[in-house]
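Lecture 7 notes: from sequence to structure.

We start with a single chain of 141 residues. Read the sequence below before looking at the structure.
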Amino acid sequence: MAFKELTDNFKEVGEKVQEYGESTLEYQKLRIFKSSMKGATSLVNLLVLGSVFLFILLFLSLGASFIIGNELGKVSYGFFIVGGFYAVVLVLVALFGKRAIERQIILNSSKLFYDDDELKPEKTVKKEHAAFTSTAKNETT
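Now the structure, written as tokens:
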């Protein structure tokens, strides 16, 4: 009789381990889907807002070029001055802003792809431990 109970318990443990593996796999699939959707929506938002910003910048640059060119007597001078301004901005960003841009990208990416709970493992462990103990108590009674 005791041998049969032991065999049944081993079967139950095997089934529970298999269920745990399957549910963990499903959870990981959902997590990957959630992260990829967050990334995709952020990319679309970035592309839309970036496109609008570039159009605004283009028209402002054209307007400034024409105004400066008319004041100097030749329109081409205005375009050269605005182009030079953008070249100086590019050099400054390349020299001094590279680290800040990389840091900001990494920070934003980590916020997108990791949940708050995953960044605080103590809370996750406590939740899992509480769920496990309540499940174990329910199964023993």
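The two ends are 20 Å apart (CA to CA). Keep this in mind for problem set 3.
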